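JOB MANIFEST
job_type = single_chain_structure
chain_count = 1
residues = 88
[input]
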Amino acid sequence: PQSAGGASPAAHTPPPPPPVEKVWHLAVAGEVSGPFSKAALGRKVTDGSLTRETHVWTPGQDGWIRAGEVDELARLFTVLPPPPPPPA
């Protein structure tokens, strides 16, 4: 038998939640810091406190990985200008 109202349950399903931005933790010289947003990590790349060799971790990731090996973070390093040319 049909339920009263005849509305399909799918019509009342809320939209999926927006994707939750990952947060990242850093391990530098044996000290763990974070969590940081990707935007915050971009600023750390700019000021030199995050490099490709820095170990990072995000919930759901299996252990610590170098930032340069994480596709999502490796892009942060490609926006930096190349080193200046050697002096003439």
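[summary]
The longest strand covers residues 31-36.
The domain at 24-78 is CATH 3.30.1490 (Dna Ligase; domain 1).
exit_status = 0
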